[in-house]
Amino acid sequence: xxxxxxxxxxxxQCVMFSDEATYQQDGAPPYWxxxxxxxxxxxxxRSWIGRGGPIPWPPRSPDIKPxxxxxxxxxxxxxxxxxxxxxxxxxxxxxxxxxxxxxxMLHRTW
Length: 110
Description:
Layout: H1 2-7, H2 11-15, H3 34-43, H4 66-79, H5 87-99, H6 103-107
Helix pairs in contact: 4-5
Protein name: Tc1-like transposase DDE domain-containing protein
GO molecular function, one term: nucleic acid binding
InterPro entries: RNaseH_sf (IPR036397)
């Protein structure tokens, strides 16, 4: 995977928000090398989650609560209903969609 990311600068943009891949840096030895962390720092500055990373790996991960699973699926379905022109529009859509989520929606996922 790391080689594919390095060879094709658009690779992450093509799969990051698709159902084709899940990126998870869980601290397993193959992902703990300095080379891997260097690439993560370059590609996702100050924004990747993992052992030795800028954001610590959450306790009990990779378990995802139903509310979290629902939330990301819901947001993705809403924001990608039509093509996105740029990152500004993406951020605006994410913000607007998150604002539509209320506690009742989240309680129904438990």
